[in-house]
Amino acid sequence: MNEVFSFAKQRSFFVIFLVCVLIVGLVAIYRLFLSKPTYVYVKVKVGQGLWWANTMRPNTWFVEAIKQAKEEVDLTGQPIAQIQRVRYYRWWGGGQYDTYVTVKLRVSKLGKTGKYNFKRATIGVGTPIDFEFPNVQFSGTIMQLSEKPIIEKYIEKTVYMTKKYAYLWEYDAIPAGDTYFDGKDTVFVLLEKQLNDTNEVMKPDNGGMVNLQQTEQRKYIIVKAKIKIREENGQLIFGEEQIITLGNGFYVVTPRFGYNEYVVARVE
Q: Which of 110, 118, 109 is nearest to 44 (CA)?
């Protein structure tokens, strides 16, 4: 026994290092094989929202890659992130999409603080999060975090949208029965469209006189559509973030037409 203590004293650095390695190994074995994993569910908007890392919305090819992603695994092959659903809505200003993913995460709970760690980073609503799936890597901002599966409850409403000063070709271009599928549900279905005359004249931006003979005739369009929305805290939300309010603008871009500069006139 004295020889053991003498050996340990002479090689104290080596012994301390060995003890540290043993402790780390035991902790790793406990976390990998003995401890019960903790799971949370998050809804993430793809694209970093912090001011120093503001990225573009994903393009079509990026969205297609995200739709194919399934699981992110750790070094032992165990899943740490599993995509449950992907929803995407084309941005009216270009060919990008507002993209949202709902993901099941394996996390570490930080004692009794109520906080969680994912890949050594504390997560919560508003924090950035990174994913590294085999076929695609992307970042996002957490919009919702829950210890239980996130259940999305949608209701159907009929919305009437109007647009003043529309060109005649706009009315003709609106396709009958137009729809939009967001990756999970058909959330927009065109029911009817109406065309009315308007006697109002738009003044030119330069403030000059209007020559009615040279002014292209404008029309008043009314669109009736069925939409799927969520009702939260007394608000009607379309496409995860667009609040439907009477008198406010409403837009949706389908594969065949872009409904832009329309105003919500009625919801029933």
A: 118
H-run or E-run covering 4? helix 2-10
Burial 230-243 (b: 16+ CB within 10 A, else e): eeeeeebebbbebe
Element (H, E) at 10: helix 2-10
Region for 119 from its dihedrals, namely left if φ exceeds 0, alpha if ψ lies in -120 to 50, beta otherwise:
left
Sign for the CA dihedral angle at 142, 148, 149, 152 comes to negative
What is the pTM for the complete model shown?
Answer: 0.80
First to last CA, the chain: 86
Per-residue model confidence as pLDDT tens digits over 147-176? 999 998 999 999 999 998 888 899 999 999
Q: Are the CB atoms for 113 and 11 separated by under 8 Å?
A: no
- Report CA torsion sign: 36, 42, 46, 49: negative
Is the CB of residue 191 less than 8 Å from the CB of residue 158?
yes
Please identify which residue in the block is written with the tokens 């404008």. Answer: 218
Distances (CA, A) of 233 to 162, 237, 243: 26, 10, 11
Domain coordinates of the chain in residue numbers?
A: 38-146, 155-267
pLDDT in tens, 15-24: 565 666 566 5
